[in-house]
């Protein structure tokens, strides 16, 4: 593929005909658990899970999946930054590919061009496949996409998912970027992920397949081009040098977390329950998705109307007039409603707070409990990033925090994810 000086990319027409069948997806639980009881629970349609509110345990879980995968690793992310965390995970994926694991990486093209060189290098590996979701046509002057193709590029893929061997997965609110894992020098997001295995992985794998096979997902070589094979060798050497510099402390810190996760998986001291993995269909962007293929419809169908309580945490809580009326009606019926969102100072998107604040007084007057996240979350101890790198995050950046988690509880039914 040839690129002009303006980075113009000839994109395919967008039509979707692929329809994944979950029944065709085989969950290879024994690859990970080797436990008859766990396999039986999976056959019963149950799912085991571990909530990951700690930033280090969350990244350690992803690394655990990558290091222990035996056949495949599938990843789907909205944001993937060329920073410490982004390169740490890419290095782990490269090592997995080197030992024969098939890696499929789907990234939304909202990330810009800063990762292009690394992606081109990784594409030289026979075990790496990379696709970009809904790519921009004007690669280096994206303003033209917003002028001429605003309706198309304004719809993005917000999914955050990693699946190993079609058997075990991590999803939630965290993108692959340092600020989501307490490793940024500027500020830290407070977020929530979930590690899960069992029947819900079948749903997750079907969602990944749906997006991967969508015509909106374009082979990265058609968008960013290719490079010589020696660039892969140079990237591998660069990653090995970074790993060597931090090897001892990084591995010691990871070893403890990996041992903990191994104990959880092998001895199953966690609960199994009925779970569903839900997501918008990529057809939503094309305007062809049916109601049952949309996240909102799926969630409402599963969760139902609250009878006792509704508790939610949302970084960008904008109830709208219709939503405010709905919450007020719940209170009239005696249903407890509590919500946590960002304060103005903590919100990384100020305009969102402006839309939320116009409904705040009305909600409070009607008995809806509102809590706002403080912009400073004091961290007295060294973060994992400081421990493994020897770096010191400035106090302002270390303690500046913003809520990014999205989860809610309806009478004991819990949603954890991103929207």
From TrEMBL:
One of its GO terms (molecular function) is phosphatidyltransferase activity. Residues 153-180 form the PLD phosphodiesterase domain. One of its GO terms (biological process) is cardiolipin biosynthetic process. PROSITE patterns: PLD. Pfam families: PLDc_2 (PF13091). This is PLD phosphodiesterase domain-containing protein. It comes from Acinetobacter nosocomialis NIPH 386. The lineage of its organism: Bacteria, Pseudomonadati, Pseudomonadota, Gammaproteobacteria, Moraxellales.
């Amino acid at each position: 593929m040839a690129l002009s000086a303006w980075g113009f990319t000839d994109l395919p027409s967008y039509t979707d005909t692929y329809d994944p069948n979950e029944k065709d997806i085989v969950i290879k639980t024994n690859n990970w658990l080797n436990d008859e009881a766990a396999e039986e629970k999976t056959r019963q349609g149950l799912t085991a899970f571990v909530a990951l509110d700690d930033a280090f345990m969350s990244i350690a879980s992803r690394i655990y999946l990558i290091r222990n995968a035996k056949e495949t690793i599938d990843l789907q992310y909205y944001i993937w930054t060329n920073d410490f965390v982004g390169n740490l995970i890419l290095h782990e994926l490269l090592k997995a590919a080197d030992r024969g694991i098939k890696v499929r990486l789907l990234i939304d093209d909202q990330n810009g061009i800063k990762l292009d060189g690394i992606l081109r290098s990784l594409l030289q590996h026979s075990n790496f496949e990379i696709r970009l979701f809904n790519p921009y046509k004007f690669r280096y002057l994206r303003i033209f996409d917003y002028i001429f193709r605003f309706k198309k590029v304004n719809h993005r893929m917000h999914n955050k998912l990693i699946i190993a061997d079609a058997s075990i997965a991590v999803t939630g609110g965290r993108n692959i970027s340092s600020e989501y894992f307490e490793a940024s020098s500027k500020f830290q997001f407070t977020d929530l992920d979930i590690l899960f295995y069992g029947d819900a992985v079948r749903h997750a794998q079907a969602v990944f397949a749906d997006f991967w096979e969508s015509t909106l997902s374009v082979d990265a070589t058609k968008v960013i081009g290719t490079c010589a094979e020696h660039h892969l060798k140079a990237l591998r050497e660069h990653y090995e040098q970074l790993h060597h510099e931090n090897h001892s402390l990084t591995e010691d810190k990871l070893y403890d977390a990996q041992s903990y996760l191994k104990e959880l998986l092998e001895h199953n001291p966690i609960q199994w329950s009925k779970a569903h993995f839900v997501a918008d269909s990529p057809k939503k962007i094309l305007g062809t998705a049916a109601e049952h293929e949309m996240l909102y419809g799926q969630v409402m169908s599963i969760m139902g109307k609250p009878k006792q309580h509704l508790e939610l945490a949302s970084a960008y809580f904008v109830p709208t007039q219709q939503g405010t009326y709905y919450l007020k009606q719940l209170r009239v019926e005696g249903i407890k409603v509590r919500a946590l969102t960002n304060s103005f100072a903590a919100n990384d998107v100020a305009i969102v707070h402006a839309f939320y604040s116009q409904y705040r007084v009305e909600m409070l007057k009607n008995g809806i409990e509102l809590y706002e996240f403080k912009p400073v979350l004091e961290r007295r101890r060294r973060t994992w990033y400081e421990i493994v790198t020897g770096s010191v995050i400035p106090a302002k950046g270390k303690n500046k925090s913003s809520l990014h988690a999205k989860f809610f509880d309806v009478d004991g039914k819990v949603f954890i994810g991103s929207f």
